[in-house]
Each structure stands twice: as C-alpha cells, then as structure tokens.
Specification:
Elements: E1 9-12, E2 21-24, E3 28-30, E4 39-47, E5 53-58, E6 65-68, E7 73-76, E8 81-88, E9 96-104, E10 107-115, E11 122-124, E12 127-134, E13 139-148, E14 154-159, E15 166-169, E16 172-175, E17 179-188, E18 193-203, E19 209-218, E20 221-225, E21 235-242, E22 247-256, E23 261-268, E24 275-278, H1 284-289, H2 291-298, E25 306-309, E26 312-315, E27 320-327, E28 345-356, H3 367-377, E29 378-388, E30 392-395, E31 399-401, E32 405-406, E33 411-419, E34 425-430, E35 436-439, E36 442-446, E37 450-457, E38 463-478, E39 485-502, E40 565-567, H4 572-575, E41 585-587, H5 606-637, H6 643-647, H7 660-674, E42 682-683, H8 684-696, H9 710-716, H10 722-725
Parallel strand pairs: 1-10, 3-10, 12-19, 21-29, 23-42, 31-39, 32-39, 40-41
Antiparallel strand pairs: 2-4, 4-8, 5-7, 5-9, 6-8, 9-10, 11-13, 13-17, 14-16, 14-18, 15-17, 18-19, 20-22, 22-27, 23-26, 23-28, 24-28, 25-27, 28-29, 30-33, 33-37, 34-36, 34-38, 35-37, 38-39
Length: 733
Amino acid sequence: MVVRRGSLVSIDAERAMDLQLRVTPTEVKFLDALSGKVYRLPVTVHNLGPINLKIRFLKPLKPQFKLILTNLDKELASGLQMTATVEYRPNKNEDIFDQLFILLGKKAIKIPLIGLIPTCQLEIESEVNFGTLVSNSKVHCKEISIRNHGKAPGKFTTEYQGQLPIVISPSNGIVKPMSSTIIKVDFCADQPRVVKEVAKVSLQDRPDTFLNIKVRVVEQIIELLSMSGNKKVECIHFGSTFFGTSKLERAVLYNNSPAPINWVAVMQNDAVGEELGTDIHQRTDVAINNLNYLRKIKDIDVTLFISCVPNSGRLLPYQKTTITFCFSPKLIADNKKDNDPSHRQDYAVFLRIDSVGSKDGFLRDDDSKTITSDQFQKLELALTGSGLPLILQFDPGTVLNFAPCSMGEHSDVMFTIYNQSKLPSVMFNFKKIAWFKMDPQSGLVSEGHMQEVKCSFIPNQLGEFKVKQVLEMIGSVANENFQSVSLKPFHEINLIFNCVCRLDVDKVVMKNNCDVLPLINNPTGRFMVKDWAKSKEYAPVAMLQSTMTSIHSHRSRKETRTDALIAFPNDRAASIKSGEQNKHFRTIFTNIPRYNYVDPDFAYTNSEALEKKAHKDRYAEYIKTSRNMQKQTKSREDMNLYDETDAELQLASDLKAPSLPDVRLEEDLYSAYCKIKPYQLLSTSKIESKEAEARDRKVLKELKSEPSTLREKHDCSLNLTPKQIHQVIVENY
C-alpha cells in the first residue's frame, strides 16, 4: 500500500494530543554525532483514547536515518503504548535533517529527525562588579570564566574601546571541550569615580554579547574625631602647664574607607604659622632684640616634648583607634632667671598623619587632581600649648637661721611661701630630714595666695649644722608609656637651714645613796664637761677597761686578766644578774676578781657556744671567699684573654685581620641603630636629613648573597612597621 504524503494533513507531535495519541519525544536529535558511528534513539507512541487506534509509520527519506520496526502498521488498544527505534548512521561530518511520519487516518504526525555534528557551546558571565574601591592607584583584578559545554573547541574575542584604565586579558583564545578559560579584568583605581563600562565579547556560534564592568571608586579618607565620635578635630589645645609637667589629650582616628590603611604621624617642621618657644604676649621689638634666643629655639626638636601614642599602625576598613597626645614642655634657658615671668614659652606646631603606600598615581597627568587626592590621604592637625615657669617667693628667704638650742629642746622658725605663678594652684611636699619637722609637711598653694610653714629644729646631736631641705613641687608627669599621668615631683627648691645644738654646763651634784640602785642609775650623780669635744678625760661609765687604770693597785696578782672589766662600787645590784662566760670583772680599787654569776638555765652550754662560733666562722669565710672571687674575675676581664689562642695561629699571606677600631665602630653603629624610641614622632627635618645622608653615601661594596655582620643580620630579620616603611628611600643610581 502506497500512500502519497502530499494527500495527508501533517500535524506536529505536540498537537497529536488532540487525536488522543501522545508521541515522545517530539523531536529526535542526535547530538555530537561522528561519521562512521551508529546512534539510536527510541520513539514511544501512547494511546490515550477510549478506543483502539490504527497507526502507520512512514520511513525517513534520507538513508542516514532508519526506522527499526518489524511491522509498520500497528493497532494500539486503549491505554497501551509501543516503542520504535530510530537509527542514525552519518557518513560525513555534517548536520543532517529529516522527518518521521506516523499516520492516523488521514492525519500524519510529524517528528523531526536531526543529526548534529560536535559543536562548541560557549557561555560567559554578563557582569564584573569590583564593588567599592579606594583611590590609591592600585590595580585590582577580577576573574571571570568562559565555559564550553560542547564537545568541540570554541573561539572567543574580547574588545574594550573605552578610555578608562581597564585591561582584559587574554583578548582572544580557544576554549577546549568541556572546560573553561579564565579571563582577567584589571582596573586601576586612580581617581574617584563611578564606572559603568561595557566590553564586547564574541563567542563562536553565538551572537555577540556585552560584558558589564561596574566599579565605585572613593577617596581614602582619614578622620580625627573627638572622643564622643560626633565632631571632627582640627586643633588640639593643651592649654598652659608648668615646665616639667605633662598634659594629655585624646582623639579617635577613623578610617572612613572600605580598604585597610597603614598610617604614620609626622611632625612638620618650618610650617607656616609655627611657633616654637616664643612668648606671643611679648612685644615684637623685645623679641627681635633677643637674637641669640631666637637662634636657639629655631633648632628645637619638637618631638622631644610632644608625643603621639601610637604614632603609626594599621586600620582595617571603617575601624577606629584612640590616639593619645602628650605635651611636656621643657624650659629653654634665656640668660635670665628661670623664675622670670618672661620665660613663658608658647608652642603652635602641626602634625601630619599620612597613609603609607602609593599616594601619587602614576596615571595622573593633572596636578590639581593629585593635590586634591592627597588632601584626603593626609590629615593635618594643629597642636597648641604653653609652658609656664614656677614662680615661688619665700619670706624671709631660702636661707633660715635657727636660734641655738640644747638637746631635748627645739627651735622654731616661721616662713611664708608666695605663689606668683599664673596657674590655679601648685602642690608642694617637704622631704623628711633628721632633726627637722615641717608643719605642714605638704599642701596646696593657690594662685596669688600664700602658705605659712613652721619649721622646728629638734637636735639629737651637739654641734653646728648646715642642712639642705629639699622642697618638691608635685604635678602631673607623664609615665613611660606617655598614655597616662601620675603625680610626681617635677621641680625642686633647696632651702638652707643654719642651726646650732649647744651643750649645757651643769655643776657636779654628788648624791650618796646607800641603798641598792638599779642598773640604769649607774653611776651616782651626773658630771657634764663643758667642752666635750676638747676634753681628753674619759666619761664615767658602768664598765671600763681595768688595764687603763692604776688606782689602788696594791700588788700584782696572778689572776689579774688584761681583758678584765672594772666594776663600780655601787653597781652591786647589777652584778648579781646572769653574766657571760667570756667576760671577767674586778674591783676598781683592789683589783680583786669579782664574782660573775652565770645562770645555767639561760646561758649557752659549751657545745652550743662552739656551734654558734662555728656557724659564725662559716659565714665569715664564705663572705671572704666571695670577695676574693669577685676580685679575681675583675682582674681577668682586664687581661687579654685571646693571647694564648692567637699565639698558636698563623696568619695567611692574603688575609688581614680587621683593625680593632673598625670592629668597635661597627658594634657601636649596631647598638645605636637598635635604640629605637617607639614613642618619638618622626619629623620632616629628620627625614630630609636622612635622605640627604643616604644620597651622599658612597656604595663601596658589592651586594652580598647572605648577611654577615650583626647589622646586616638584624636588618634582614626585621618586619618593617608602617613607621619604618615611611622612611624607606628609593633612589636610582
């Protein structure tokens, strides 16, 4: 039975549902088909109607497609389905198209047959978003990928025709099957702007597409805020303080940018409006006449009395840190008295906070743009303060003369302290010294007021005395970390006390007491010599060396000892107390040995006495040995310890030992280099002098592959801080 296709009504497989016949798939597509291979796909026909349907399959016209089915005429019962197989045998690498018809009465269901050779399927992202960047002339890179889902390699090309610093690499290439290629988009953030650019991308076997490039570039802004955080700080006023004291002010450093920043504080020298140690209240003609003082203050190192902690560091995006500024003025001599009111010294300096890194863009041609950008990357802060002298007046003066007095008595002197300083108050404290009592010992003297002080001389020794009394002035002095202050002496005033302790002359009063007297009443009576220092007589005591007297030595006795002590006639009450075994007594007149009582309950036994003596001798020997060892060690250090070693060495003909001065010089340089003051600010004058020194330095040695000296080893092991990076000098030679 031959059926002409032209007489049939062709319908798509999707519309076959109207005939209650479902065909899947709606098209038969052979993807990535290669010549010489066989590919098969099933076609399923399902009867969805309530009655049986008679269908007929028509074979494809092209020989590459073949319908594998034993009987082309089929009858499908209601609800049943059948499957036919379509076979594809390509004989060359090209795309082939045909159709498969399923007849249902006078209607035919058309199923497209498609044979495709392997192709590429390229795909690329449509947008590159750098987000928010900081204008610091750094190159930022974003990566996107071109993916090939096909089984054949595909070509691509990219092209950007804009004027912005955008580079896409690679600009063209081939993507292998079932793989991807990375495309880099570089953007240089040279100035603030909002970027919305497009780049043309051509993909093989696909229409041209566009790559959207979006960037928001902002300035890197450093802000100094008040401690409350709601107000910008442009000037810090320390106010007035005494020379030697300190004042602290705090502020918050804020990184108002989306990128981390390394910052460093630098003191500006010779800035416009700078004042160093001048008195702004002084007349101009008076200040000009003092040229020596003007020359001296010109060389003042401001970083010695103005500090900033921390003075360098790293801030993360939108991070804040607290900075402490310390003002500690020091008096600069001016051939005048230190307490002269004209010694007022006013300071107005400028501190710059820089961002460490690339600040001047290499792509910028307009100088005005560069200057505008630097204004945001640098923060300038003014610091003002005044140092005032401490002006105190003493009435009747700093030298006080006390009336003579005896031991047990006291002599008082009143003097007055006047505070003529221009600050509200000052604290004072008298150091404690022997025989003197100050009332009050410490206190507070307000501006323009006075404080009366009572000084009492209470001697415990005879003679004439000239004593220095130190008066300490207490104030707020910065601690070692320069982040806090404590009350410490900042100024000392010496007061001279002249006083005399005289000797009272009393007559000898003999009082006989036949009763037994206690030990503290020996000897009876009191005898005071008028001029004790010139007297050669011996004062009467309870015990004397008996060998120094010859009173009533009637005859010599064998039992008389040279180390015997004399006993007075009226000390019998004391003689009955327990004595020591190694002490012997005799009477003053007859040289008869006196009975010495030893209490066995409290006295040392012989063994205990020997043990005590051995213990004492052992420690005495240890101390003596230690002293001798210290002396020997010190003497060895002064000797040349390398004489024996050097005597056995023979110098090579081509080698020369370094001279000792050179070695010492290198060690001195290393030790000086390692003395880093972390709290001292950098200054523009110091940086310029170091740059000039580095430019004038001659390179006499070649580069080394490894460090050899201590200085080189120390340099190679350093992790540079932002403060050190800021001092790096790069020059072309």
